[in-house]
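2024-03-11 09:14:02 DEBUG pipeline.ingest accepted 1 chain
2024-03-11 09:14:02 DEBUG pipeline.ingest length=462
2024-03-11 09:14:03 DEBUG pipeline.predict start
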Amino acid sequence: MAAPSGSTERSADLVVIGGGAGGLSAARAGARRGARVLLVQRGPLGGDCTFTGCVPSKALIEAARRRDPFDRAIAAAREAVEVIAATETDEVLEREGVEVLHGWATFREGGALDVDGTAIRAPKVIIATGARAAVPPIDGLGELDYLTHENVWDLEALPASLAVLGGGAIGCELAQAFARLGATVTLIEGLDRILPPEDPDASAVITEALRADGVDVRTGQPVSRVDPLDPKGAVRLHLGDGSTVEADRLLVAVGRAGAIDGLGLEAAGIRTERGFVTTDDTLTTSAKGVWAVGDVTGRLQFTHAADEMGRIAAANALSRSSRARFHADAVPWVTFTDPEVAHVGSLEADVADRGGRVAYLPMSEVDRAIAAQETLGFVKLVAGPRRLLRNAGGGRVLGATIVASRAGEMIHEPALAMRTGMFAGRLAQTVHAYPTWSVAVRQAAAQLFMETGGRRARAARR
């Protein structure tokens, strides 16, 4: 790789572009393999999850659950960011054998890599630049001072009213949190239900929960135009049914797009699709010696998925024989509303034509939920027949959806069952401490091979 005229030059065995969850994982995995790793990051290490995503949002959600005042809640979010960011500094990475270079990385013709005038010589590169908030093409939106999950943490005062555009995980989480903190919140989703990727039963439960917290949930309502009402961010939204919504601030939460601007991907022959870097299951891109991980790939956009992808890509980049693959089927995710929604694997509708069976248990029949007076929700296990043994031993777990106060903690048993290919009946045979939330998983699993509590697994349906 030739250096541009007049530039300095550095070399490494592996260059990782991006210091978020995927990049940190890849860089550390590379260093553990004895490679000379150079991590290039434009800003501080930690990425979206630490500074604008998982960390501040979960701190805010917990503060809202406690009904803290807004100033205390936003301070808690900022404090959580500060504490966790301190574990991901340049010094920490360098002690682990990773060299850090701050700057803007750009691919040049012929596969060369440049960072602010410094030519980087490396045979292997991993792209881990993450994603940014997507902005829909709505008339008038570009003229507004709107909020996203990236800048909502800059608020110094609670808006009296908030319109949330988008009923996905981010929109639902922040809508509920701001409502509990005292704002009047309207949540607007263009599709016919919130949380569209989830089981429809989960969408119905969270709609009920949000409305119980005072959120005005409007579904099937695309926004046609947005008008500014004052320079401070007040807006009027025009909905598809002709009605309007006015709010002091607008939060746009309609999804995320890959952070690929300025990388020069075309010069390196790296293909993209829908704004994300295209990879195969080994996380290899269309360019030789280049892999991509995390949100920039458009695959599962979760910190833990990016972390897993980083390790896989580093192994594939640094080993001649490794062809490790990223399997999304057994990767769980959680929407941190109250109750939480946790999911792994297939939905019921996915297996309706494949002999799938469903075990369903409402949380109102779970002793711990009754004791805690938090009975909203359910456990739904999706199972299917094995190739030869069919439904013996309950078959095998193909997926699960759990809606419960502690769903995020409960989902890992079904995820483990999927990862290891165990008989579904093992979940029912495992002794669970009583009274815990996870007993619900055991109760539901028992339905797959016997009647219990008057319930038995049924055929999956669309």
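2024-03-11 09:14:41 DEBUG pipeline.report Residues 1-6 have pLDDT under 50 and may be disordered.
2024-03-11 09:14:41 DEBUG pipeline.predict end
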